[in-house]
């Protein structure tokens, strides 16, 4: 049975409910206050019919109204109503506080757990679906939880207290009411069992739709460039149609709950009226008209919570379904913690060694097998090869975004699994082909790795990356706020900012004068100049050369012209190093590297 099927089962629903109650338990004092206020408002509400009944009994007939009894009763009724209104207001404020605090906690847990999830989870799940769980499902859960606090407690207490009041007045009529009650419970339970699965399906389909929209909006240019608008619209329509169908079914079953329970309630009211009237008409009966009025009022108050509770049950089914999806995310296995006794790296020179490394993303598809490599401090290592040969995978393993299946990778003679991830990753400066910039100022994006960097250090990093000139042309210079993922900046400009960032991410200053940079001891450049024009690329290559001097550097390149000066070129094919050497020696071998190089430059040279 899959996790999804377990959560959909009754046992899974109960487990989810226990988790929700555990989170609510953190606010037990607010819950106790809510329960106390709920009990007080219910008691005050139930006291009103008794007072009204006594007032009615004070009206004996025409010209025989006992005002000395009625006026005090009216004042007491007014006081009860005022206190009830105040209690309900405070109770609603308390319930809102509990609900939104619980949902805030769940979202914080979800976001914190996302930071700890292994990259394999993020790669395997659509980003839009994950966003849907944290945002949409949490909102749906909040709605159901708020309705539960607002109506469930007071509804249950109303039922119990009403039965108690009625039993003290006339046990026979109370038994008539209790005898019909199971019919209402049966109807509510019958419908609730069917709505949970439908609401869960609705939540899952909504997540699929959110993921689809997020993916298409993020890649709208590609969709339009390939003329896929109609095809993508058809796919969206199909998902939308499935969402419509399951939503209609869920809404249908949930909407018949209230009419069905109202019918049962009307039966209860009619039975109370009939039996109460017969008792009142019986000779020597103690049942007065005022008492019968109170009983009818109690019958309404007794049956009304069943309508509310049936609606609450439906909403809670939806809320539990959404909570289950949220807990699935929160409880997804986190990445393996740092090994006990793992010590941070110190005095990193840049010695890296791979020993018999094996790795694959999927067990049935081998990628890297028996990979061996020894890199000396300060070496410039270029990694080339066709798409899918494992170039970027080597970087993922080097940074411990993934762990090796077999073998080991060591830095300074220490297995990286015995080094804290934070310490390991701090030893690398990384520039990827895919840029990422957060919403904020240009200065904040450059100083992401060193938030305490001075203005002079930020400017020096930007100058070294040849980004200073275009930054100064922005409306507010370094204080210009850019949008999500760089906003209106060109791809090349975004990449220059990412290069500036890595030039400021180390923990030790290098250089002198205005060009003092904080470079990490090792560098990873994964096609870092792919979106930069040729003229700027030459200047960037010059900056990279200065950066990489004396530092171990790993350069993943598709354009072989960018790695001619590398100390070692690793030529990969199907997860294996098939050739190794410098540019000239590899060309002289006239092997696979020469084939790749000539395929790029033969036409241009001809």
Blueprint of the fold:
Elements: H1 3-8, H2 10-24, H3 28-57, H4 67-116, H5 119-124, H6 127-169, H7 171-218, H8 220-225, H9 229-255, H10 257-281, H11 289-330, E1 352-359, E2 368-375, E3 380-384, H12 391-398, E4 406-411, E5 414-415, H13 421-426, E6 428-431, E7 440-441, H14 442-446, H15 455-464, H16 468-472, E8 481-482, H17 491-502, E9 509-510, E10 517-518, E11 522-526, H18 534-548, E12 552-556, E13 568-573, E14 576-581, H19 583-589, H20 592-605
Parallel strand pairs: 3-12, 3-13, 6-11, 11-12
Antiparallel strand pairs: 1-2, 1-4, 4-5, 7-8, 9-10, 13-14
CATH architecture field of the domain at 3-197 and 248-330: Up-down Bundle
Report the count of strand segments. Answer: 14
- Determine and state the CATH class of the domain at 3-197 and 248-330: Mainly Alpha
- The percent range for strand residues is 5-15%
Structure overview:
With 606 residues, this protein is α/β, with parallel strands linked by helices. Among the domains are: 3-197 and 248-330, Up-down Bundle (ABC transporter transmembrane region fold), CATH 1.20.1560.10; 430-520, Rossmann fold (3-Layer(aba) Sandwich), CATH 3.40.50.300. The protein contains 20 helices and 14 strands. Strand 4 (406-411) and strand 5 form a beta hairpin. The mean pLDDT is 78.
């Amino acid at each position: 049975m899959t996790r999804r099927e377990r959560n959909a089962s009754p046992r899974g629903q109960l487990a989810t409910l226990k988790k929700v109650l555990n989170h609510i338990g953190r606010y037990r004092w607010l819950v106790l206050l809510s329960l106390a206020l709920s009990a007080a408002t219910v008691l005050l509400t139930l006291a009103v019919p008794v007072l009204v009944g006594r007032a009615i009994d004070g009206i004996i007939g025409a010209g025989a109204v006992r005002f000395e009894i009625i006026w005090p009763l009216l004042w007491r009724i007014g006081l009860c109503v005022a206190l009830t209104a105040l209690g309900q207001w405070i109770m609603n404020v308390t319930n809102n506080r509990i609900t939104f605090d619980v949902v805030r906690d769940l979202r914080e847990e979800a976001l914190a757990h996302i930071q700890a999830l292994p990259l394999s989870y993020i790669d395997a799940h659509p980003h839009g679906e994950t966003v849907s769980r944290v945002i949409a499902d949490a909102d749906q859960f909040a709605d159901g939880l708020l309705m539960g606090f607002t109506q469930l407690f007071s509804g249950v207490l109303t039922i119990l207290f009403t039965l108690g009041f009625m039993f003290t007045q006339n046990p026979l009529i109370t038994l008539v009411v209790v005898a019909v009650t199971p019919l209402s419970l049966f109807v509510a339970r019958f419908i609730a069992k069917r709505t949970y699965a439908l609401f869960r399906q609705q939540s899952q389909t909504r997540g699929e739709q959110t993921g689809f929209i997020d993916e298409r909006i993020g890649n709208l240019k590609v969709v339009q460039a390939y003329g896929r608008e109609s095809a993508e619209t058809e796919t969206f329509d199909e998902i939308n149609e499935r969402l419509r169908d399951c939503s209609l079914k869920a809404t249908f079953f949930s909407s018949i709950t209230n009419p069905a329970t109202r019918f049962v309630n009307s039966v209860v009211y009619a039975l109370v009226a009939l039996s109460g009237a017969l008792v009142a008409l019986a000779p020597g009966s103690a049942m007065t008209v005022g008492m019968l009025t109170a009983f009818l009022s109690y019958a309404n108050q007794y049956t009304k919570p069943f309508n509310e509770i049936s609606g609450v049950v439906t909403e809670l089914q939806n809320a539990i379904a959404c909570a289950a999806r949220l807990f699935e995310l929160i409880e997804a296995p986190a990445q393996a913690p740092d090994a006990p006794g793992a010590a941070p790296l110190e005095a990193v020179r840049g010695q890296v060694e791979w020993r018999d490394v094996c790795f694959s993303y999927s067990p049935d598809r081998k990628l890297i097998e028996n990979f061996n490599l020894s890199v000396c401090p300060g070496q410039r290592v270029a990694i080339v090869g066709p798409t899918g040969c494992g170039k970027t995978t080597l970087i993922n393993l080097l940074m411990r975004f993934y762990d090796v299946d077999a073998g080991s990778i060591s830095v300074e003679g220490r297995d990286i699994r015995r080094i804290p991830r934070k310490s390991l990753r701090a030893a690398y400066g990384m520039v990827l082909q895919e840029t990422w910039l957060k919403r904020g100022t240009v200065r904040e994006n450059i100083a992401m790795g060193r938030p305490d960097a001075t203005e002079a250090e930020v400017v020096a990093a930007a100058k070294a990356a040849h980004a200073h000139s275009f930054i100064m042309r922005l409306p507010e210079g370094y204080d210009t706020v850019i949008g999500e993922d760089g906003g209106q900046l060109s791809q090349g400009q975004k990449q220059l900012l990412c290069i500036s960032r890595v030039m400021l991410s180390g923990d030790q200053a290098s250089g002198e004068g205005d060009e003092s940079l904080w470079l990490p001891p090792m560098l990873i450049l994964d096609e870092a100049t792919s979106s930069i024009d040729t003229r700027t690329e030459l200047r960037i290559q010059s900056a990279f050369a200065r950066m990489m001097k004396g530092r171990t550097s790993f350069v993943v390149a598709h354009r072989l012209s960018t790695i001619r000066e590398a100390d070692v070129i690793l030529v990969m094919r199907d997860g294996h190093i098939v050739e190794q050497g410098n540019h000239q020696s590899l060309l002289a071998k006239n092997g696979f590297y020469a084939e790749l190089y000539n395929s790029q430059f033969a036409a241009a040279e001809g």
